[in-house]
Q: What sequence folds into this?
């Protein structure tokens, strides 16, 4: 299973900049969601 996943990821040649941008976007979105949830509870 892991070997199949590695082959799939190797075929998907994603630039480092794009992957970093996606990671930052996901992190910022999760942080904003947590802040909104905390504000609603408070």
A:
């Amino acid at each position: 299973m892991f070997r199949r996943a590695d082959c799939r990821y190797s075929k998907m040649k994603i630039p480092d900049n794009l992957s970093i941008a996606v990671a930052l976007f996901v992190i910022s979105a999760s942080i904003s969601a947590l802040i909104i949830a905390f504000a609603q509870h408070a």
